[in-house]
Protein 1
Amino acid sequence: MSDLILTPNIDTPDDFYAVLLAAHEGLGKDESDALNARLVLVLANHIGDRSILSQALKAAALKQE
Amino acid sequence: MSKIFEVPLYAYERSPDQDAPAPVRHKVIVVGAGPIGLAAAIDLAQQGVEVVVLDDNDKVSFGSRAVCYAKRPLEILDRLGCGQPMVDKGVEWNIGKVFFNDRQVYEFNLLPEEGHQRPAFINLQQYYFEEYLVNRVRELQAEGAPIEIRGRNKVEAIGTHPDHVKVEVDTPEGAYTVEADWLIACDGAGSPIRSMLGLDFVGRVFEDNFLIADVIMEADFPTERWFWFDPPFNRGQSALLHKQPDNVWRIDLQLGWDIDKEREKRPENVIPRLKAMLGEDVQFELEWVSIYTFQCRRMEKFRHGRVIFAGDAAHQVSPFGARGANSGLQDTDNLCWKLKLVLDGKAPESLLDSYDYERIHGADENILNSTRSTDFITPKSDMSRILRDAVLDLSEHYEFARPLVNSGRLSVPCTYDGSPLNSADALDGPERTRPGSPCPDAPLEDGFLLPRLGGKFTLLTIDADAPDVIEEDGIEVTRLALSVKDDPTQELKRRYLGEAESAVYLIRPDQHVAARSPSFDEQSIRHAIRRATGKEHANV
């Protein structure tokens, strides 16, 4: 079973963060929520591996094991 | 012209039981002449078991009701002698279209697997199905089979005893008492028998209302399943359009829970909804309108001593996925051979507890699937709606999101994994034919596999030696010897051998696999037969 990566893994993190904010710029709350939901689904499909997805859900919930 | 559901098909007739000095004892009483009750009665009568069906009505059901029949139930109906008229009359479909808001987001083709005698699905009004079952009962009666339907015989009270059931029946000519060794309650979702015994449903409850309409129209909509999420003509809800025979179209409009049913059912409220859906110019005639309320739940146990529940009386699901009538037919398919063996003294009464185990497993699978569909179709929170809409929006553009769209996961038979009747899997064969699985059909040189299995214990050998008949403690098992040489499409090999060179399958009368191994070993087959008939409880 592979492990979810929880150490820095994105090149140029500031650039990525700026792009993420930019994607939401000018959107209302509903549109932003919808964009986030679509983004989660697109990324989840790319990962595919159910065990990684389970670990990601746990990590995002900020609950310590 | 009078419609089939307007004519009494099993009119009340006085039975000699009503004039008997003491209650007459029958082998089996089935309560309810709906599809499941009739299927149970036909199955038993075909096996020579004397059976009386009591029904408070005398006609087939009004309106289309259960409309979608899957392959496995059609195969079961073949065994009961009614599969062909169903397929001849029914409408086959493969294309489904999914709409979201005001647009089509994608279409799919079910692409049914090749090499099966029966189609993946047909659509057919329930009243035709019931008519074919009644015709089959009449045919069996003409052949002298011990089967009887008593119309307008309403069960008023029931008394349970260790070795029989006593039933008080009301008729147009007064009440009488009758008895049976066993009673099968197929009296529907509102089962009066269940209430009389003080039993109720347990589990998750989900409630919703659907406006169901049968509409006769000469429209050129193709033979496809159309499903709408949140359409302009039914905001915040869903809608479904299905074609049936005779230019009858079935429309299901979700209405939500908190509605005024009587008001919604009035034609002046229904017709504008349908016009908004079908287009202002489409000419149609309303044949039937009903409001359907469902709950997803099941009884804790289906067997209560000598009273056994089947179909909607035992479990209810949402309509998404066509899992109601389809699973009810699998109930009686599972039950009737077991009951026959118990009645003949060839198996212990405890064999019937495996009906509970296996069909509760089936009901739970159906409830899980239909609850998940319901959760997708009717999001319960803001975030579940946001995620649902995200899936639908993505599905229009990207293939990956389409498997996440859930407008009903269509009924497939369940595999009885972990059943006490299964023997350990001794073959390194395909997963789909592991012990507990329903046998998949396969084309043979001459016809198809499933009709060759029939409704008795069979030892299917593929390129393996075995005796032609084995008898173990009253259970006769007949060999069906096949070879990959008789396998023109190689489907038999793919479905039953996989990488194995040869195989021996012990197949139950309901065409589920009980045991399998690469070659015949007398001791283990005898053990498997005992196990499949409830006589062995320990593992090998």
Protein 2
Amino acid sequence: MKKAAVTLVLCGALAIVFSAAGFAETLQIGALYPISGSLALLGEESLRGAEIARLERNKAGGIAGREIVFEKADGSTVAAARSEAERLIEQKKVPIIIGSYSSSRCMAASEVAARKEIPYFELGAIANAITGRGYKTMWRTNPTAQDFSKSQVAFITDWLASQMGKQPSEMKVSIAHEDSDYGTSVAESFSTLAKESGIQVVSVEPYSANATDLSSVIFRLRKAEPDIVIAVSYAQDAILMARQAYELKLKAPLMGTGGGHSLQSFADALGAQADGVLNVDFTQYAVNTSFTPGLEEFLALYKATFQENPRSGHSLANYMGASVVFDILGKTGGSMNPEDLRKAAMSLDIPAGTTATGWGVKFDANGQNVRAVPLVTQWRDGKLVTVWPQDAAVMDPILKE
Amino acid sequence: MDLYIQVLVSGLLLGGVYALISVGLNLIFGVVRIINFAHGEMVMIAMYLTFWLHHFSKLDPYVSAIVIMPVMFIFGIVFQRIVVQPILATSATMKIFATVGVSLLLQNLALIAWKGDFRTVQTSYSMSSLEVFDIIVSIPRLVAFSAALLSIIVLYYFLKYTYVGKALRAIVEDHAVARLMGVNVEKHYILAFGMGTMFTALGGVLLMPFSSVYPTVGVTFTLLAFVVVVLGGLGSMSGTFFAGLFIGVVESIGGTFVSPALKEAIYFAIFVLVLLVRPQGLFGKGKGSEEVGLK
């Protein structure tokens, strides 16, 4: 009996020694997301994705034998994002930062990082300007606002116009967008691209995402009489706009641009009225999985770690992005020297359809991944399914009267 | 022409909602002059209570008001006893600091307890509306509007004719004299805070059928309610009602015919102009009345 007890204790001690000795060193990475404040929901969802990638990579041996550790920071507001970036770099001495879900927070935080020559990897914010500022240490794995608009314009010209019995040049589109970096950036890209393909943009309506009432936006949209409304919204305003559009009898269908329109809470709030709402976003979970190898493993790991289903595709996008960052660090052998990183990042050449998001990886001179493509999804019976393009789709899109 | 009337009607309905949210603050800040920056968080808590009651016991939001109003009355009393009472005799700034602190605390407690999710109550009437001569009137907003009107009438008569109402007004004007006249000042402060919180909670409950609740939902309401109360004139119940309607209509017209992005800017500009000309607010009692009890 006594022997058994001693053996048990010894085993326990050994286990502790081994788990501690599994990694002799750690590799610190700053993880900057809004995890409190008004963007907490998707900010945290994004962080969860990166966290899954970290757990997975550590299980597989970490990077060059070192354990990856996140130094978390809360960019609850734009000002907080800036000061948290300072804190991460000056006090915590992190050699690299990932983030940040919100475009305005990324713009502020990455500016701090660039000044101190700390590499900044954006895994989820889409404003065009993020990789358009000529920073040598700025990288982005996810698609840009421009890419979102490209998908929307292609969907309108390839599918929607013919469904409405019109030529693309006869299509009239209104844009209603929240007025921070995210919404403004999408609205500008869409207007430019639409013009190039002959689509008419009949009105552009900016509004504040914190608005308690959007009836005036709906009245303006009614006056403009578009065939479709491109909405660029966060969570609360997406629900409010869709509810008031129904109440005030706006005829044109809505097409979201990521963010709020992908959330389950959007479908819950609108009930049957959510059915048929279109959306362009990062890869979601009802997608052709032959296009997204690794997605099922991610889902299983997510459920095991957080005991619930992901709230949106933001975690998946950040999982994919963080994995790419780890791949790059693996290539440099854990070196954070910006020059080494640059070489390693530029050498990546992953074809589309081979990652969990279905995106490939190839960085351009600005550090933007040019193989990340947003997909068109649609709410069908309370589920968000991928409907376009065909190789990723699990259902055909429908046009709801 | 239709559009103009529709915009006006929507603006009035929106204004009714604004007035409803501000009634409670008018009692707490307008009548007894305690600056409460946690006002929006009281709305937030009432909204969450409505949501959870509906979620777990399928209680209709309008019915849940019967439960939530007394609960929030007690919450107001506790809040007054713990946070406000100890600093009652200090300057207004102290009350701002203390209540801003409570507001942040409540926001983050809500985030920890209920997460950042955007929660809504789905009822049969959430998106229902009446149509009168092609003018669309949202039913849940009409209910909120009517409740605002009713609350205002009730509080008006309460302040004017009941003993408690008269005592409250006396305390603000001169609490030493009120005490000499036999008014229990502490008790009346507690009562006013409880009632103010209760009416604020009613606002939160009636918002739920058409808005979503999340931890920081109160932030916009706090600012808005202060603007409504100050614009209408501190302590004036009809002032709060008309100021609410005024802001709602300005927002609706400005948003529709100028730009949705500018609607707040327009009503704040008007707010500043009004205060320059009439610092006591549109329905305020008289010159200088806005400073009574705050200095």
